From TrEMBL:
<dbReference type="GO" id="GO:0006289">
    <property type="term" value="P:nucleotide-excision repair"/>
</dbReference>
<dbReference type="Pfam" id="PF00270">
    <property type="entry name" value="DEAD"/>
</dbReference>
<dbReference type="InterPro" id="IPR022307">
    <property type="entry name" value="Helicase_put_actinobac"/>
</dbReference>
<dbReference type="Pfam" id="PF00271">
    <property type="entry name" value="Helicase_C"/>
</dbReference>
<dbReference type="InterPro" id="IPR001650">
    <property type="entry name" value="Helicase_C-like"/>
</dbReference>
<dbReference type="Pfam" id="PF09369">
    <property type="entry name" value="MZB"/>
</dbReference>
<dbReference type="InterPro" id="IPR055227">
    <property type="entry name" value="HRQ1_WHD"/>
</dbReference>
<dbReference type="InterPro" id="IPR018973">
    <property type="entry name" value="MZB"/>
</dbReference>
<dbReference type="Pfam" id="PF22982">
    <property type="entry name" value="WHD_HRQ1"/>
</dbReference>
<dbReference type="InterPro" id="IPR011545">
    <property type="entry name" value="DEAD/DEAH_box_helicase_dom"/>
</dbReference>
<feature type="domain" description="Helicase ATP-binding">
    <location>
        <begin position="104"/>
        <end position="290"/>
    </location>
</feature>
<feature type="domain" description="Helicase C-terminal">
    <location>
        <begin position="331"/>
        <end position="483"/>
    </location>
</feature>
<keyword id="KW-0547">Nucleotide-binding</keyword>
<dbReference type="InterPro" id="IPR027417">
    <property type="entry name" value="P-loop_NTPase"/>
</dbReference>
<dbReference type="GO" id="GO:0043138">
    <property type="term" value="F:3'-5' DNA helicase activity"/>
</dbReference>
<dbReference type="GO" id="GO:0003676">
    <property type="term" value="F:nucleic acid binding"/>
</dbReference>
<keyword id="KW-0378">Hydrolase</keyword>
Length: 818
């Protein structure tokens, strides 16, 4: 029997809601709030209020205080036009910070540069000043379109936000700067104007990949004059998504060269390890890093918050901790009552909806005017819904927002006072990125990390040094992944026939892949070039977000109204027949899932339960790339094939999480070829560890769960990017084996990183299990919220003994990274 733990999109992360009555820490009426009296409460004062009430103070496990920091100014480089400097001054910025001036100087010299400084450090102005100055220069040319610039962001929301910022800053510059957004929400009648006349086009990698590059002849005048490519929030381009974007950028460079241009890349990143290396790997050109942050920073108070244990018991009788969803909803409620403008970040779309809904209900008990000032924000909303929420947040009409990471990136939300993180966001880079949404105008800020009932979250709130004393992670991406590279070679050939001269541009794996693409009749070689000869659009072969196909449309059956979309990879587990689907505070039941037409038909209902999918997983080894001995044990890395099938779903009571019943499902299996790290142990080692045959499955299963939960400390991933399988006797190894694999075709680099840090990774796993206060295992150590086997069997004590034996012979030096 195999025990499995699946990656993104396979299980909804939401646990049962709170089971304890809420004790609000603040009970003052809205018209008595300190903010209304003109007093801006300090972050410490706000936290002290939150910590009052029965048992509230004990939930704060650690408070980190980041003192204010003074800034240092510099002068703009002399080539920056005086009109731009005047416009910046009119916006209230007399002189730039030193890192802004240094970034602009590199850009003006034609050197690609990445500015990797803290949140709210003015990275946008660092690249906008040279871009606007150069656009003004180009607008004075006697003929032609003039100089152009392209801005890429990972989300539509960020591009729209940047468009507003550019419009405000460039308003005094007149017609010399013509900025426009070009994405899936741009009306068809506006697109031709953007192609013909805009000189600063804001878009995303998806539109560049599917729209601009395949139609490059229509963009010829823009591309011929392209001087700068701005890549905002470039640290988000990691894993498979980052690998795809790296190849999209190589295709862009190739098409630009066809029109005689060679753009300079200007990248902005949250603080990250080795930003120059990551930026160079992403763009394929040498990039200089600016990492010294010379901007001032207000006081930051960062609290780690652990919800209490409840009197309930979950799967296998394990104690249940109050959920981060319920606890964060309480905090959002209390902060709104205090008049503290807050964003609560939550991992799942459903979680964002629930937090907003719970907060609205509780605020109604305090003041009938308050519920309308809290809302949810997530991907899958229609464009007009997203824009309305963004406007309300900017204007201050909203006091609180429960948001997914769709709002994490770069959005300049002035005036926010606090950020609540409903669970660790997966990486330290994302943690600081989300926390940095507050205090962006220089005032003090409060950030609260609310731990989920999860091994990593529990470990972090009791080991604050792992958050506050460790550097952020390196960005992991692999442009040479053949599953990534192959479709982009087809797309490139459709744009312009591929030649021998292109081999170096796309990387060393290109030469080997081209004959394979010929054999599959995707490309045809004629003379000295490879051509795309099929009728289909070549760009459609590459799914750059790794979402596994077209999004599934969620449609209200009675009216035909489109409610939103769900990623194809998540459809089997979130919109299967009988699933409960939440949208803007309303609940629906899925009546039919049509996978062929990518449509889920729903009808509004208010069931007293949530639904959770159950599945089975099998894994086979295709190739062992590397293998090293750990005594008699073996640590391996290589290629695997994973087969997963959703077989049923559970209905659980909303409040207690009690299972009401299980319903069988008939959904097709899905197969994934990817990369994995795995380890085996021998019978002698099992005897040394005193792991008896009847406890073996539970020991392996528990070690697998905990290791997946801890891996984000060592790789730039979260547990939803990876999956796992544990088998007491695997047919390929003929030994007890634990696998951890990347949840993306061809791999994302996470399993490889795990292989190279295995001793430290598995040591931390053992420590996390051993340190948990529970007796037999719980969600804080070895239970998983997305286990396809209902967290059965699990054996905490046997897992500790097994990992101790495994690690006893681990080599002192990790295997060298290739």
């Amino acid at each position: 029997m195999a025990f499995n733990h699946l990656p993104a999109g396979v299980h909804d992360a939401l646990s049962p809601l709170s089971v304890r009555p809420v004790t609000h820490s603040v009970s003052m009426a809205h018209d008595q709030l300190p903010r209304q009296a003109g007093i801006r409460p300090s972050p410490r004062a706000v936290l002290d209020r939150l910590g009052t009430g029965a048992g509230r103070g004990a939930r704060i496990t650690h408070t980190e205080h980041l003192p204010p920091r003074l800034g240092s100014h510099a002068d703009w480089p002399s080539p920056i036009r005086p009109e731009v400097i005047d416009a910046v001054r009119a916006a209230g910025i007399e002189r730039p910070w030193a890192h802004q001036a240094r970034t602009a100087a590199h850009a003006l010299r034609g050197e690609s540069v990445v500015v990797a400084t803290g949140t709210a450090s003015g990275k946008s102005l660092a690249y906008l000043a040279p871009v606007l100055s150069t656009l003004l220069d180009g607008s004075e040319e006697p003929s032609g379109r003039g100089t152009t610039a392209l801005y890429l962001s990972p989300t539509k929301a960020l591009a729209a936000d940047q468009r507003r910022s550019v419009a405000d800053l460039a308003a005094p510059l007149g017609a010399g700067v013509r900025a426009a957004v070009y994405d899936g929400d741009t009306p068809v009648e506006e697109r031709e104007w953007v192609r013909q006349y805009a000189n600063y086009v804001l878009t995303n990698p998806d539109m560049l990949h599917r729209g601009i590059l395949p139609g490059h002849p229509r963009w010829s005048s823009f591309l011929r004059a392209l001087r700068y490519v701005v890549i905002d929030e470039c640290h988000t381009y990691r894993g498979v998504f980052g690998s795809h974007v790296a190849q999209v950028l190589r295709r862009l460079r190739r098409v630009c060269a066809r029109y005689g241009s060679s753009p300079v890349f200007l990248l902005a990143s949250a603080t990250s390890a080795d930003p120059a290396v990551a930026a160079t790997r992403l763009t394929g050109v040498p990039v200089t890093a600016i990492t010294e942050d010379s901007s001032p920073r207000g006081e930051v108070v960062f609290a780690l918050w652990e919800p209490p244990l409840t009197e309930l018991h979950g799967e296998q009788g394990a104690p249940v901790r109050r959920t981060a969803t319920a606890e964060s909803a309480d905090l959002l409620t209390d902060l709104a009552v205090q008049g503290v403008r807050t964003v609560t970040f939550v991992r799942s779309r459903r979680g964002a909806e629930l937090i907003a809904l719970i907060a609205q209900e509780r605020l109604a008990e305090v003041d009938r005017s308050l519920p309308d000032r809290v809302a949810a924000y997530r991907g899958g909303y229609l464009p007009e819904e997203r824009r309305a929420l963004e406007r309300a947040l900017h204007s201050g009409d909203l006091l609180g927002l429960a948001a997914t990471t769709a709002l994490e990136l770069g959005m300049d939300i002035a005036g926010l006072d606090a950020v609540v993180l409903a669970g660790y966001p997966g990486t330290r880079a994302s943690l600081w990125q989300q926390a940095g949404r507050a205090g962006r105008t220089g005032q003090g800020a409060l950030a609260i990390l609310v731990a989920r009932d999860d091994p990593l979250d529990t470990y972090l709130v009791h080991h604050p040094d792992a958050l506050f004393r460790q550097p952020v992670e390196s960005t992991v991406l692999d442009p040479d992944n053949p599953y990534v590279l192959a479709p982009h070679l087809c797309a490139a050939a459709a744009e312009l026939p591929l030649t021998e001269a292109d081999l170096d541009l796309f990387g060393p794996a290109t030469e080997e892949l081209l004959p394979q693409l010929e054999q599959r009749k995707l490309l045809r070689r004629r003379a000295t070039a490879w051509h795309w000869t099929r009728r289909e659009r070549a760009a459609d072969l590459a799914d750059i977000r790794g979402e596994g196909g077209s999004p599934v449309q969620v449609v209200e059956a009675a009216t035909g109204r489109l409610l939103g979309t769900v990623d194809a990879s998540a459809a089997h587990t979130t919109v299967h027949e009988g699933a409960v689907h939440l949208h803007q505070g309303r609940s629906y039941i899925v009546r039919q899932l049509d996978l062929e037409d990518s449509v889920a038909l729903v009808e509004e209902a208010s069931p007293p339960y949530s639904t959770t999918a159950r599945d089975t997983t099998a894994i086979s080894i295709l190739e062992t790339t590397t293998e090293i001995p750990w005594g008699d044990a073996r640590l391996c890395f290589g290629s695997v094939e994973v087969t997963n099938q959703v077989v049923s779903f559970l209905r659980r009571k909303l409040i207690t999480g009690e299972v009401l019943g299980e319903t069988k499902l008939d959904l097709p299996p899905r197969t994934l070829r990817t990369r994995a790290v795995w380890w085996t142990v021998t019978e002698d080692q099992l005897e040394d560890a005193r792991v008896h045959p009847q406890a073996l499955g539970g020991a392996l299963h528990a070690a697998e769960h905990a290791s997946i939960g801890i891996l984000p400390l060592f790789a730039t991933c979260d547990r939803w990017d990876i999956g796992g399988v544990s088998v007491p006797l695997h047919p390929d190894t003929l030994l007890p084996t634990v696998f951890v694999y990347d949840g993306h075709p061809g791999g994302a680099g996470f399993a490889e990183r795990a292989f190279h840090t295995a001793a430290r990774w598995l040591t931390a796993t053992r420590e996390a299990i051993a340190a948990c206060e529970c007796e037999a295992g719980c969600p804080s150590c070895i239970q998983s919220p997305k286990c396809g086997n209902g967290n059965d069997p699990l054996d905490k004590r046997a897992a500790i003994r097994l990992l101790t034996t495994l690690l006893a012979k681990a080599p002192d030096q990790p295997p060298a990274e290739g």
